[in-house]
Design a protein that fits this description.
By secondary structure, the chain is of the alpha/beta class. It has 15 helices and 25 strands. Among the domains are: about 170 residues, no CATH class; about 240 residues, 3-Layer(aba) Sandwich (Aminopeptidase), CATH 3.40.630.10. Helices cover about 30% and strands about 25% of the residues. It is globular and about 85 Å long.
Length: about 600
């Protein structure tokens, strides 16, 4: 069932801005001559302006970023060009992943340059980094960088250690004899208030619980571009991710499902976090679907370049138009919001292959890669394949909507369908999008499925839930293009042969080996050795399942957030992977 009261408001609340509160508090006469040090989720310019206002009141203040404090410390306070070497000793927490604070230093190694940074664990769990800087010329400096955190229960009830606001106030520089304690900031309050509003609502027992759960949050926050690292630190993006996955965890608990169950169908959860607000505001609403309004964006955002030159994801109409121009048979399925999943089947004499993209709709390079590969296959005699270039049109529409505000964010709210589930794992009627995949496999008889995916091209965090994204720990930092191979029992040998053949073929893709080596080096500097086998320079995993086709080759390109030349390279690699797999399968597939 769906909510029968469209437009229901669960919360509409303004919050006090923490930075303004602190300036007002410490501007009082009794604080004159004191030393104030604080951590909160604000940008450098805003923190510096607040320090100047307090200086005018006779207070010496220094405000730091509570989000990624070590990386932000170097941006704020350290002249990067003068550094010959940097040694960082990071805390090893008693709660959460052992490498948490090493990960939180990401992407400092890229900011500092090759060979400059050394990261080592400390023997204790005290929440600070010890930093030793060696300057060109040999001079050495030591620094201590605090990383304030609080212990709490996260949305699932599990214990967590998360970044938090903090104040240290002393009668002399470096002292904290007057105040030294955690502070709940506006950023943390916005998250908590939104979560509480959802938890307190009387949800029905049956899924889905709503059509669209909208969480509009306006905050000060910051977006910190890091050009040398190809990254952007964004408190808005981090809050989007934390809200979305926290609410999935809440509804998994409400439904009686285990954490991480991708069959959950709560409805569409849409965090919309925007920066620049002087006065923080949190709005939580239940809304009906408005597919027409979303689809109106498709024309405005449609890039017109040829497929092989696309610098961003094409509009749905462009995808359909491309497929409809090809010879072969069409098949369709409907989505929860009434859109159409379009499939294409070309019968030939080769061993058939099923090609798909867009299962997770914020992973867009696979959509273009699938279309480009199919276009090449159409020119080959006896080609035999089924194609679904965009498997999740409802999620794709949400992704385009969210990209109007933040084109460089990951937008995992658009990952799943309008039902809120992962279409691959849907196991009950109505099947909606899942029906298209079943038709593709039945029509073609394909025993190989090449399923094109992506993952974040920059760091993925949940800062208010222990920082490291639960269940996706291995995905939080990019580590190059890699492959996941799944096979049924008895199919291990042909599956392995396919994997090795594809990896060998991809050695010929210009720039891929260098791209992978560069990303793996940065990943391993911050996350440790990669837990994957490497074949011909391509990281791989191989598992046995009983799902869908006997052999499934899943691609993973770090494409979320990329555009321009980086996006073109992403769908180039996706296309070559499909073509390599189809070519290799002809000599591997059992007769």
């Amino acid at each position: 069932m769906t909510n029968n009261n469209p437009g229901t408001t669960l919360l509409d609340q303004y919050l006090e801005r923490t930075l303004d509160q602190w300036v007002q508090l410490f501007s009082q006469p009794e604080w004159r001559g004191r030393f104030v040090e604080g951590w909160l989720f604000e940008g450098q310019a805003e923190r510096r302006a607040a320090e100047q206002r307090l200086a005018a009141a006779g207070v010496r203040a220094r405000f730091h970023s509570a989000y990624k404090p070590l990386a932000q410390h170097f941006i704020d306070n350290v002249g990067l060009v003068q550094l010959a070497a940097v040694q960082v000793r990071y805390p090893v927490p008693q709660l959460g992943p052992r490498e948490r604070f090493r990960l939180e230093a990401y992407p400092l190694a890229a900011l500092l340059g090759d060979g400059v940074l050394t990261l080592e664990p400390r023997a204790d769990a005290l929440l600070h980094y010890d930093v030793e800087l060696t300057l060109h010329g040999g001079k050495r400096l030591t620094q201590r960088v605090y990383a304030p955190n609080r212990r709490h229960a996260d949305a699932s009830g599990a214990p967590a250690l998360s970044p938090t606001g903090w104040l240290r106030v002393g009668s002399m520089a470096g002292a904290a004899d007057l105040l030294d304690c955690a502070q709940s900031t506006d950023y943390e309050q916005a998250y908590a208030q939104a979560l509480h509003a959802v938890r307190a609502h009387p949800w029905p027992d049956g899924e889905p619980y709503f059509e669209r759960l909208q969480l509009r949050i306006d905050l000060p926050g910051f977006e910190q571009p890091l050009p040398r690292a190809g990254e952007t630190m964004s408190t808005a993006e981090a809050l989007h991710e934390d809200l979305y996955f926290s609410l999935l965890e809440f509804f998994q608990e409400h439904s009686g499902r285990p954490l991480g169950d991708r069959r959950l169908q709560p409805g569409q959860i849409v965090p919309d976090v925007r920066l620049g607000a002087e006065l923080p505001r949190v709005q939580v609403s239940l809304l009906p679907f408005d597919a027409a309004a979303q689809d109106a964006l498709a024309v405005a955002l449609d890039p017109q370049e040829p497929l092989d030159e696309l610098a961003s994801a094409p509009a749905p109409g462009r995808i359909v138009q491309t497929m409809h121009a090809w010879p072969g048979k069409r098949f369709t399925a409907r989505t929860r919001q009434g859109r159409t999943v379009w499939g294409h089947y070309l019968e030939g004499r080769q061993h058939p292959v099923f090609i798909s993209g867009g299962q997770h709709a914020n992973e867009t390079s696979g959509v273009v890669g699938a279309l480009r590969a199919a276009k090449v296959l159409l020119q080959q005699p006896d080609a035999h394949f089924a194609l679904i270039a965009l498997e999740n049109p409802d999620g794709y529409a949400l992704h385009r909507e969210l990209c109007c505000q933040h084109p460089g964010h990951m937008h995992h709210a658009a990952r799943y369908t309008a039902l809120g589930d992962d279409v691959e794992y849907r196991d009950k009627a109505p099947l909606y999008e899942r029906e298209a995949r079943q038709q593709a496999l039945a029509l073609s008889g394909a025993r190989l499925h090449v399923n094109l995916h992506g993952y974040p091209a920059h760091e993925w965090t949940r800062p208010l839930s222990g920082y490291v994204p639960r269940g996706f720990e291995q995905w939080m930092c990019p580590k190059g293009f890699f492959l996941i191979l799944r096979h049924h029992a008895g199919w291990e040998q042909p599956a392995r042969a396919l994997l090795q053949a594809v990896c060998e073929s991809l050695k010929q893709v210009p720039g891929l080996a260098e791209f992978n080596a560069r990303q793996r080096a940065l990943y391993e500097r911050h996350a440790g050795p990669m837990p994957f086998e490497v074949i011909a320079g391509i990281a791989c995993t191989q598992t046995q399942t009983a799902h869908d086709a006997p052999v499934t080759l899943v691609t993973e390109f770090p494409d979320e957030t990329v555009s321009g030349e980086a996006f073109r390279f992403a769908h180039e690699v996706q296309m070559h992977t499909v073509l390599a797999a189809v070519r290799a399968w002809q000599g591997i597939a059992p007769r």
